[in-house]
Write a structure and sequence with these properties.
Blueprint lengths: L25 E4 L5 H10 L4 E6 L5 H8 L5 H6 L4 E4 L5 H13 L2 E4 L5 H4 L4 H7 L4 E6 L14 H8 L19 H24 L3 E6 H5 L4 H10 L18 E6 L2 E6 L3 H10 L3 H5 L6 H4 L3 H12 L4 H11 L3 E3 L3 H5 L2 H6 L26 H8 L4 H9 L4
Parallel strand pairs: 1-2, 1-4, 2-3, 4-5, 5-6
Antiparallel strand pairs: 7-8, 8-9
Helix pairs in contact: 1-8, 11-15
Length: about 400
């Protein structure tokens, strides 16, 4: 008996992606946690049919949420617009089903530790033998080669290894990690770029390829400014808190207000003139002692006191509006609840959709799939197996 979908909204053949850059492409997403799933999400938002493959018990982000009796917002964000199936790649039948999908796929992406796919008998070279046009994309912490290859890598440890933590924090305190999982998401973005580049190459040559990204590799270029300071000074730059990394630009800091904090930075000397006017002290903008960054830098404490004495009398929104009016860069330090309710992000649709092409309407976000929600769609409609067969495989631990 063949399987027919009951819900057209989730039908494999009716994904609303016609006309989008990656429409018609099928991606097998073996990603877990953040790095791989974020890449898969970006592909889905450009029109690709992304099939998220999880083990029968679910990937770590899903069972972490289950363990604490809550929901996983990261799971929802990073796996929206994907089809969700379960598959036991350690089971011979699960492996066979996966290879059947590989024959129909354009991309396989994964961010397992190096060597996992080889141990499963699903090495990149094996998959390309089954499908020579396949793009096999792997994301890791330290790469599939080099002396760090097999070291366990998480965002925190890669931040440490990359040097990010060493330049973050205040000079009289310990090094501090970045709040967000920056290395995971930078790595996912690089993997997306590698996949699209490989797909472009395939259009020209007809050949598939193997691509990889490493979080450490992707993180290093973000330190360009800090590296420049190191080479200029002949040694690692100090931590500078919220001040400019080279302590050569000011004002450049986070300042207190009546209801929180604001970030203020004067990149151009004209910004300083404008800020002085906003503060009601235009004479500071004309004072030759503070006319340039080079002159203000040795007087950084004085400059910060000028700014802080003004911001303390204001609400952070008032400072933000002053920056808009008088033309100097300023922004309130917002908590995540404030950001989530930001009218700008809502008006742009960023919190509900992602519009990447001006001549196309944004793809509507669909909820992330439940565990194995599209097993019947993918293994039934796509591969042609019966409900009875799927039921047997569920009982055997294949799905």
């Amino acid at each position: 008996m063949s399987v027919t979908a009951n819900s057209a909204a989730h039908n494999v053949s009716q994904q609303p992606s016609e006309g989008y850059p990656l429409a018609g492409l099928t991606v097998l997403d073996l990603g877990q946690i953040y790095q791989g799933p974020y890449c898969g999400f970006l592909l889905a938002m450009e029109g690709a049919r992304v099939i998220k493959i999880e083990p029968p018990g679910g990937e770590p982000i899903r069972w972490r949420a289950d363990a604490r009796g809550g929901t996983s917002l990261p799971q929802a964000i990073l796996n929206s617009n994907k089809l969700g199936v379960t598959l036991n790649l350690k089971h011979p039948q699960g492996k066979a089903l996966f290879l059947s999908l590989v024959e129909r796929a354009d991309v396989v992406l994964e961010n397992f530790a190096p060597g996992v796919m080889e141990r499963l008998g699903l090495a990149a070279t094996t998959l390309l033998e089954r499908n020579p046009r396949l793009i096999y994309a792997a994301a890791t912490g330290y790469g599939n080669s080099g002396p760090y290859r097999d070291i366990l890598a998480m965002d925190l440890t890669v931040q440490a290894m990359s040097g990010m933590i060493s330049v973050t924090g205040f000079p009289d305190g310990a090094p501090v990690k970045a709040g967000p999982a920056v290395c995971d998401f930078i790595g996912g973005s690089h993997l997306y770029g590698a996949i699209v580049t490989a797909l472009y190459r395939r259009e020209r040559t007809g050949h598939g390829s193997i691509v990889e990204t490493a979080m450490l590799d992707a993180a290093y270029p973000t330190l360009a400014s800090n590296l420049g300071l190191m080479y200029d000074r002949g040694g690692p730059p100090p931590r500078t808190g919220n001040r400019h990394g080279g302590l050569t630009m000011g004002p450049y800091n986070v300042y207190p207000t009546k209801d929180g904090y604001v970030a203020v930075i004067c990149v151009k000397d004209q910004h300083w003139v404008n800020l002085a006017t906003a503060m009601g002290r235009p004479e500071l903008g004309r004072d030759p002692q503070y006319a340039t960054h080079a002159l203000r830098a040795p007087r950084m404490d004085e400059v910060d006191d000028f700014v802080a004495s003004w911001t303390r009398t204001k609400l952070k929104q008032e400072v933000f509006e002053a920056g808009r009016k008088y033309r100097f860069p300023a922004a309130p330090v917002r908590d995540l609840q404030e950001v989530t309710h930001d009218p700008h992000l809502h008006q742009r649709g960023m919190l509900t959709t992602v519009q990447r092409f001006a001549d196309l309407p944004p793809i509507a976000l669909r909820l992330n799939p439940g565990l194995g929600e599209h097993n019947a769609e993918v293994f039934g409609n796509m591969l042609g197996h019966s409900y009875d067969q799927l039921a047997q495989w569920r009982g055997d631990g294949v799905l």
